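SAMPLE LOG
Freezer: B-3
Tube label: C17
Construct: single chain, 617 aa
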Amino acid sequence: MRPVLLLVIIGLGAPLWGWSQRKLTITDAQRSNPIAPYVYVFKDKTKQLTYEQVARFPLDSFQRLNQQEIVQFGYLYEKIWLRFEVKNKTKEELYLIHSYRGFRRMEVIIIDENGQKRAYQAGESMPAFYQKVQAKPPVFPIGSNPFTVYLSVVTGNAHGDFIHIGNLEQALSYQRFNTVWQSFSMGIYVLVFIYAFIFAIRLRDSLIGWYALLMLSILFFYVDYYSFFPINKYVNTAFAYLLCWSLFHVYFLNLRAYSKSLYWAILGLNGLFYANSAIAQLIRLVEPSFVSPLFRLLLWLKVDWGGFILLVLFLLLVSLIYVAVKNLMQVWVYAIAFSISLISMIISMFALYNIPWLPYLPYNNFFVPGTLIEIIMLGFILAERANRHRKEQAKTQKQLIIQLQENLHQQHKLLQIRDEIARDLHDEVGATLTGIATSAKVVQKKMDNQQPELKAVLGQMKNDSEEAIHTIRDTIWALNPDNDAPEKLIEKMKSVGFKLLIPHDIIFVFENEVPVSQLPAFSMEQRRNLYLVYKEALHNIAKHSEATHSQVRIYQQNREFRIRISDDGKGFDSATLSDGNGLKNFQKRAKEGGFEVNVSSKSGAGVEVMLSTVAKT
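STRUCTURE (predicted):
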């Protein structure tokens, strides 16, 4: 009978013992003593309960946390109360040490073994009896004989905290450790961003530019996540990071060439968030309590913003696998880097949802080492890309130099040929024509007035020979490489004008309004035809116009280089001479030289010849 009664008592007492609070016993204050296995949780959805009210709640009103090291609640929008009991066997002064930064207000109330109460607060202002703690993350002194500790957190962000108890040395070393590794990570992010930014500008490589933008978004996310600076007040750093990651990802993979559906799905989901945010911000100017449509949808699907981010990350992974199947050799290093970062990010995201089997790292933030590994590998990939770009650029420059040398060699040979042709024309053909003209002149003088018909033929031979000599000299001038400079053409046109017109008592005015630096660079063929048309126009003035004044004006108008040749002579009816050989010769040479010639005249009103071409300097 007694054994049965004993079993009944044990069975009835088991629930009571199950609800008896486990106590954290401190036997070594120099090591880390996590509070997570001993914590009970109460969620205040009203955010209005005070310590006095919460302290009156029975223990069964709280929920057992039942975690090993991390006090983790995922995304919460209520006020959280933690309750745990402590037994200090060391008699050292103890401190509540934790890693969490992203809170609005944190309160710690300590009840010692004698029933005395002390209260500390960090963040937003609280009643006067709370002592203010300035450090962030704050370290709360809980004395040498604490008994019950209440810790409340008001947060609108992910709550994941490694909270432990130790002495002052442990508190200082923990803070120092946090500062060192956070500063080290921050330093790498900053250095890689500067490296990417400088090389993006120097190489003008758009992909490195996207990488620099990705690094900037990671840096902003990191600074905000650990509350070095409240950037999230101005921009949602998590979604900015996600957007820049997505843009770099689709651009690096050239995803649009492989799958437009995945490309637009990734960019569309990112755009959906920003469109939703813009609409919500505008409506909240009128209705502050407005809940955005996208958030309503997520609540209906029983997920939160973390689930939305995981959906985009999943699409990034699917797109990487799709491209890797098509072209693994091109993306295998990036695939490794991306996978490491993605796995670490997913672990960090899952950690927000209280999955106890996840591995532990300080703050349980796997995304930090994962992101560091990814950006270093991406830096290696882009450095190789930049090196390959430099090699290709050097190869192209070498080929251009070789081609330029070959062109210079060919140009030198062409100049030699032009010089030889000019010399041959001058020495052989010119001498022959000069001999013919001289012989005709001598025979013509000896004949006196005998045989006038023959004398006229000899006179024509002399004139034609002299004309041919002048034409050859003009051709030789055009062939001479020393006359390739455009100012040489202007000087030649000016000198021939005075030479042709002054002997006929025609006042000649030559005006050049175009600076030497803006004169067009004509080819040999263009220069030759332009000069011959110009000379023929002046020859016509001297021979047929009966003019007393002639003007040449060189100027630019509407991006055209123009030469206007005019006189005040008797002119002619241009309609009756439209088919003349002189005008046809003008048009033929203009076509060969790549310029236009227009002749206008009226009887008694002189002649105007306009030469025009596009002004290419």
